[in-house]
Amino acid sequence: MSGAHLNEIIQTIQRARTVVVATHVFPDGDALGSQLGLANVLEGMGKTVIRYSEEPVSYLYDFLPDCQRLVCNPPDPLAADCLIALDCGDSFRLGPRAERLLAIRPAIVVDHHAGHKDFGDLRWVDCGRASTGEMVYDLARALGAGISREAADCLYAAIVSDTGSFKYASTTARTFAIAGELVALGVNPEQVAAKLFDNFTEQRLHLLQAVLATLELYGGGKLALITATRAMFEVTGTEPEDSESFINYPRSLASVKVAVFLKEKRDVISVSLRSKGNGYDVSAVARELGGGGHRNAAGCKFCNGEGLQEVRDRIFSLVLPMIERA
Ligand SMILES: [Mn+2]
User: Fold this and answer.
1) What are the Cα distances from residue 140, in Å, to 2, 32, 38, 115, 290?
2) On the chain, which terminus has fewer CB atoms closer than 10 Å, C or N?
3) 167 CA to middle of ligand 1, Å?
4) Distance of CA 296 from the midpoint of ligand 1 (Å)
5) Tens-digit pLDDT profile for residues 192-206
6) What's the rounded Cα separation, in Å, for the pair 29 and 110?
7) CATH number for the domain running over 6-197
8) CATH 3.90.1640.10, the chain: domain bounds
9) CA distances from 2 to 10, 114, 124, 125, 138 (A)
């Protein structure tokens, strides 16, 4: 375990009495698992912990221990001894109240995003790590803290989420070693996987049916596109969060190198990008369009009234040349 400010991070956390733990907006399994897991670890060390989240947690993750303890109001910056921002590649990912959160000093940043843009006072950023959950595990060990069953469940869910169930190229021997230690602490992998993946409602399956019917292939089968329109959400009585993980279906095609999922939400079109292997860096595509992420999993948003066709064309103008180059 190494990092520019790691020793200072450990000393700062050890000294702190009140800690605010935050993560990125629209939090995924790694974000929430890391946040709730670390919060639990810190409470185990006798600290007062404030779990900040911009919005209430999605039903997809409400099985995570202590998620009902997330609060939507940032505390008075003077009332906390430090902030820990987890899984945020950029300060704006902390949400509209990032500035107020970052007024809590020192601000500690733990992250693994490619193209991470430095912010905060003390940083541990390692793009070679498969998940922030993995880094939180190492941080807990470096703090000499105990890891409860609840914290272990959170960190395991974080790791499974960000490695695509140990499938992505970012998965290392260290990832498995940490997952193994979490299982030794009592995590039941079948239970966590069931909560994360076998959690569909009937409406959500109907949404999947409609979305998969939009499948289109380009670039000799290397590029797959699926689309979820506003009408599909309305007809099936679902919300955009119900389309979480649908991107894995086009990605599952043997010929596909890059999968693209366009989601038409109320006034935004969000784009999920997935790729396989080292030759297709979708985080570069996302960054070019104002988003971010990892080499094999990234995303961006279009908020200026662009139509689906226009968004598709902009994505393809970057992805198709990448496919031809590889
Ligand atoms: Mn992550």
Assistant:
1) 14, 16, 8, 25, 33
2) N
3) 15
4) 12
5) 999 999 989 999 999
6) 16
7) 3.90.1640.10
8) 6-197
9) 12, 17, 8, 9, 10
**Ligand 1 centroid to 69 CA: how many Å?**
21
For residue 30, report the distance from its CA to the centre of ligand 1, in Å: 5
220 CA → ligand 1 middle, Å: 31
Structure tokens at 156: 């395991």
Measure 234 CA to ligand 1 centroid, in angstroms: 30
How far, in Å, from the CA of 109 to the mean position of ligand 1? Answer: 13
Distance of CA 87 from the midpoint of ligand 1 (Å): 5
What is the per-residue pLDDT across 172-182, written as a single tens digit (0 to 9) for each?
Answer: 999 999 999 99
pLDDT digits (tens, 9 = 90+) for 266-304: 889 999 999 998 889 999 999 999 999 989 999 999 999
CA of 316 to the centre of ligand 1 (A): 25
Ligand 1 centre to CA of 127 (Å) is 10
Q: How does DSSP assign 98-147, residue by residue? A: HHHHHTSSSEEEEE--BTPPP-SSEEEE-TT-S-HHHHHHHHHHHTT---
**Contact by Cβ (8 Å): 300, 291:** yes
| 295 CA to centre of ligand 1 in angstroms | 12
Ligand 1 centroid – CA 54 distance (Å): 17
Contact 56, 67 (CB under 8 A): no
Residue type, 212: L
CATH topology of domain 202-325: Diaminopimelate Epimerase; Chain A, domain 1 (3.10.310)
Residue limits of CATH 3.10.310.30 in the chain: 202-325
273: β partners: 260, 298
Q: In what order do the strands lie in the sheet with 292-293?
A: 216-218, 223-228, 258-264, 269-275, 297-302, 292-293
82-86 and 18-23: which strand pairing?
parallel
What's the predicted TM-score (pTM) here?
0.91
